[in-house]
Amino acid sequence: QVQLVESGGGFVRAGGSLRLSCIASVRTSETDTTAWFRQAPGKEREFVAATTWSVVDTVYSDSVKGRFLMSRDYGMNAVHLQMNNLKPEDTAVYYCAAAPFTRDRHQANEYVVWGRGTQVTVSS
After folding, report:
1. pLDDT digits over 53-104, tens only?
2. Which alpha helices (DSSP H) does 1-124 contain, by range?
3. Do 18 and 38 contact (CB within 8 A), yes or no?
4. Which residues are paired to 12 by β-bridges?
5. Is 80 exceeded by the pLDDT of residue 109?
6. What are 7-52's pLDDT values in tens digits?
7. Ramachandran region, residue 36 (left: φ > 0; alpha: ψ -120 to 50; beta: rest)
8. Dihedral over Cα of 88, 116, 111, 52: its sign
9. How far apart (Å, rounded) are the C-alpha atoms in residues 78 and 115?
10. How far apart are CA 10 and CA 32, in angstroms?
């Protein structure tokens, strides 16, 4: 089964930027739909963004729309999440997830492969 490894998390002040990466161990149809979710302490896992293999249709949560940009690097079997104008409420562990297809890309239970996550901390 394909494995996903996230990187790029860290500590940043409000208004700053970070770029997360998620690299898949192999290219398979299991990563045709790839998403980012996040989970803050004491809260449920929350959808952030998702894209299809062609990157024609990328969707974002309302809380990050206009600030975050998801892209795909075909050569590296990777997706990236450029996060700009970060806010303290963006603090969370960010997870990469993948599935061959989904009926609703916003739902975590649609994804079959998950990375271990990378911590993002935004100070005020």
Report:
1. 777 789 999 999 999 999 999 888 999 999 999 999 999 999 999 999 889 9
2. none
3. no
4. 122
5. yes
6. 999 999 999 999 999 999 988 888 889 999 999 999 999 999 999 8
7. beta
8. positive
9. 12
10. 27
